[in-house]
Amino acid sequence: MPKSSTPSRERIVAGAADMISRRGLSATSIREMAKHAKAPLGSTYHYFPDGKQQLATEAVRHTGDWVARSLLKELDAGPAAGLNAFLALWRKIVVDTDYHAGCPVLAVAIEEPPADEIPPALTAAAEVFEQWEDLLATSLREHGAGTEQATQIATLIVASVEGTVAMCRAKRSTEPLDRTAVQLQALIATAVGG
To answer: Are 105 and 128 in contact (CB under 8 A)?
Structure first.
């Protein structure tokens, strides 16, 4: 079979991340994720034999890595540039999808897990949030913020932006993102003496 006609694992993962960002994890079946990625269900189970949780975990990690790459590229210019990139990334997603999509990491994180277990996708979401916080905190420290202050601001940035993306979807407006951006930029400027 020619390679171009074979659905790639990466395309399935990206499609799953997009579907989860729109509908959440509980409201999305593996069959719907495969269909959204234009992949046969059999191929999806071939790549993800453990099913929906395995695919969701990979989708969360995929999103985490994608955002981290964007942050790293911009954080070289400082935490304010990193924040701007983080905000621009989510603004593009909510606007380009007409407010139908948000963050798949957040979507997985707010799902109610079974009482007797912590699903791997939820663990992956916690790791992704920590990765983003660590990248931001490192940049803040490198640009003059104290260690504890950098950690606290990084957590505030991730929490604020994730919550604001949800608000943008609900209000069908980027105004919450704009307001949050102004305050977070001011906080960064104060923390790094800029």
So the answer is: yes
List the alpha helices (DSSP H) in 97-146: 104-109, 120-142
Return the amino acid letter for 193.
G
Give the number of other Cβ atoms within 10 Å of residue 93's Cβ: 19
Cα distance between residue 90 and residue 157, in whole Å = 13
Distance CA 67, CA 98 (A): 20
- 38's torsion region: left (phi>0), alpha (psi -120 to 50) or beta? left
Give the distance from CA 166 to its chain's centroid: 12
Q: What does the pLDDT average to over 104-115?
A: 89
Q: What is the pLDDT of residue 2?
A: 37
> Residues with Cβ < 8 Å from 123, sequence gap 6 or more?
57
Q: Which domains does the chain have, with CATH numbers?
A: 3-191 (1.10.357.10)
Contact 75, 82 (CB under 8 A): yes
For 4, phi then psi, to 5°, come to -65, -25
Tens digits of residue pLDDT in 68-88 = 999 999 999 999 999 999 999
